[in-house]
Amino acid sequence: MNNTAAKDISISNEDFQKFREYFYRKTGIWFDESKRYFVDKRLAERITATRTDNFRSYFTMLRFQASGDELQKLINSMTVNETYFFREEYQLQCMVNSVLPEITEKKLDRSPIRIWSVPSSSGEEPYSIAIYLLEHWEGINYWDVEIISSDIDTNMLHCARKGLYSHRSVQYLPAHILHKYFRNTDEGYQICDELRDVIEFTRVNVFDPLETKRYRNFDIVFCRNLLIYFDDMSRRQAAENLYDAMKPGGFIFLGHSESMSRISPLFKVRKFSEAVVYQKPLYTEARR
Amino acid sequence: MGFVKKQKDRRIEQNERSYQRNCDGFKLQLNDPDPAVRRWAARDIIQCPDASTALLERLEKEETVEVRQAIFTSLINIGDSVAVAGLVECLRSEDAALRNEAIEAMKQLPEEVSPVIRELLNDDDPDVRIFAVNILEALKHPDVEKWLMEVLETDSHVNVCATALDLLAEVGTEKSLTSLNYLKARFSSEPYIQFAVNVAIERITNE
After folding, report:
1. CB atoms B35 and A284 under 8 Å
2. What is the tens place of the pLDDT at every residue in B125-168?
3. Nearest C-alpha of chain A: how many angstroms from B54?
4. A177, A131 in Cβ contact below 8 A?
5. Looking at the 3D structure of chain B, how many domains does it have?
């Protein structure tokens, strides 16, 4: 049995190349050279945790382990999950003031409004959406809303379902919101059960067309600060998968530094007073 | 009204697709009048034998953006020799959008496209040679600089050379200085080439 400390494990250039190609094939996430320190550190941590002693043994185990448990743990450690409540609030304002009125006007069948928040991270985004709808959208009294939130990281999904947050996560919430929807406990701020009961958390890899195939008919998608981690091909594939998950006329919000126009011609750019949003065209449009 | 509570049996998918989900079905659905059906077929056919052939046949007549996008994404994912040959053929199309989509797709296939790059760079049609240089612009392949140097040294068409020169100014190293000077001598009466070579040399030597 070995007890090599993470700091004593070295990852060679060749190891790094081999690993990043494998990880890319599995997740669509590409680590460039600037992420080298981050990747090395997390690989060393997993090598230590699994007591495999060195990269070679660890990599063999990773590739051939039938259960895939270690790959999932590695994915969990390699994904970045920092977020907070009401992040990029102008997009939430855009949702209630501009996007939802347009959706409800065209929704003649009065079917539930379906919202997909991906990646869920530890749940701040989907809970923020729910709170925003309750606080700022009168339509919540007249329409059914389904919120589904997904992530590739199962640890994050566990945290999201639990709904327990640090002060840092809730720091931008107005006091009355914090008081209304959270309980201050010894462990942190616990989101109320009413909200925990309405958000469905699921595991999905947005880059994988087989996994996303069952996600359909969403009116609104939030996919913020995820595509920046993908390379061109994975971004293209993810955009296609998101497109197929949306209803015609549905809207997708990306992070402020992301642009769908640079990824795919499938979506229309919609410039609202609060934010730029991308829309799946209502009708199929011929090119010529 | 309000939020729909989560339920153990809640289905994430709302609608069932009622079409035949097998290879024969996908091939038929690629020609369905409904673009949504064609798009799903283009996505799902990827696991089937001869998928590239079926996709390329559809691509020739497909006019809908979202179906064409799905076809190109599937061709990239398959990336076999049939898919690459089909993408090469698109470069000869009169349809500028189709050509651009093919160039974008080929940029995603460095290993698969590299065996045909030299052939494209020697094509009789100077436009195809320019498109080949456009592909090199984003092709992550170690021979890109070498191929560009060959263009500078051998291509007779000034526009092809100018396109390669612009790219070499961005990606070239000191290895390409001889080729750059050779190009300058070959096209001594072309002011743009004289100017652009000087800019490229300056950029490379200053780095």
Report:
1. yes
2. 999 999 999 999 878 788 899 999 999 999 999 999 999 999 99
3. 20
4. yes
5. 2
The CATH code belonging to domain A89-279 is 3.40.50.150
**Position A272: which residue type?**
F
SS3 assignment, position B174? helix
Architecture of domain A6-78: Orthogonal Bundle (1.10)
The CA distance from B45 to the nearest CA of chain A, in Å, is 12
* B90 and B129 inside one domain: no
- Which residues in chain B have their CB less than 8 angstroms from residue A198's CB? 3-6
What distance lies between CA B134 and its chain's CA centroid?
Answer: 9
The CATH number of residue B82's host domain is 1.25.10.10
Answer yes or no: do B135 and B95 share one domain: no
Q: Do B73 and A148 touch (CB under 8 A)?
A: no
Considering CB atoms only, which of B14, B65, B138 is closest to A287? B65
pLDDT band at A30; cut points 50, 70, 90 = confident
Residue B8 maps to a domain: no
SS3 B64: strand
Q: Is A141 on the interface with B (CB under 8 A)?
A: yes
CB pairs under 8 A between A and B: 85
Range of the domain at B130: 119-207
Q: Is A286 in the B-facing interface, judged by CB distances under 8 Å? A: yes
Q: Which residues of A touch B36 (CB under 8 A)?
A: 284
CB atoms under 10 Å from CB of B177, counted, come to: 16
**Chain A positions in Cβ-Cβ contact with residue B64 (cut-off 8 Å):** 284-287
Q: What angle do CA B65, A110, A241 make, to 5 degrees?
A: 30
How high is the ipTM of this complex?
Answer: 0.73
Chain B residue numbers with beta carbons less than 8 Å from the beta carbon of A17 are: none
pTM: 0.79
Please report, for chain A, the start and end positions of each structural domain, with discontinuous segments joined by +. 6-78, 89-279
**What whole-number distance in Å separates Cα of residue B62 and Cα of residue A237?**
20
